[in-house]
Structure prediction request, 280 residues.
Amino acid sequence: MSTPAVSQELGAFLRAHRERLQPADVGLTATARRRTPGLRREEVASLSGVGLAWYTWLEQGRVTASRQVLEAVARALRLDAAGLRHAMRLAGYHEPVPADRTAERLADAVRPVLDSWPASPAVLLDRHFDLLAWNAAWTALWGSPENVPADRRNLMWLMAVDRHLRSVLHDWEPLAMNVFQHFRAQAGPAIADPRTDELYRRLEADAPDLRHWWGCHTVAELTAREVVVEPPAVGALRLTLSSFHPVDDPSALVLLFTPRTGTDVARMTDLTKRPLRATA
Prediction:
């Protein structure tokens, strides 16, 4: 179950979402004078079917909540699926990871699938967004992950720090923020997870200009979208980003960038035939 520090992080997460809601968002009538931003605690407690004192203690990290009660609070706060999953993880309710499937075995099982897309960059991530396997098209577009130190071989770190990726990717910030929001929902609380804590420390040290991101409480699903990239000497490429979870480990994630047109396929194919770029 939750440690006191994790319970406080859950309370901060719930409070941040409470303050973002307006009475009209949950079918309430706003009074003329409201000193509290967003909803009041008593309003959330009433909507959740719990006592005001107990809900106050929940935000203060002084009590733990069952799954059922936390789901009721999540409904009152209008949390989406990513927000509910993140709240559950902060409360200590983690999805079980198959004990008989190591990262290496999962990578071995999924790598042939990645290789079956020769013109579509694809990568396998664990729940911390560490890169477990990738195909030749991924290396051709983004650089070889093998040239990145193992403790930084992570999609969030690459999105935040790798200058080549940021220079090649058009509209970098919306995608990078969506990746981070999904990372928050997926990885769980840093205080209870050594790898998550390590990643935040790496990001703090290596991307100080994005420090305001790491303290953000927003979470979201990673949504499908069109991505435009422009590698040197190839021209602009339009790719469709999609994702799915391997059946052997639902906490892992496969990202796939599919060329949208025949021209995009031809340019991506040409890129994979060029000498590999070394990632600094």
Observations:
- The mean pLDDT is 86.
- The CA atoms of residues 127 and 175 lie 18 Å apart.
- Strands lie at 122-125, 131-134, 225-229, 237-244, 253-259.
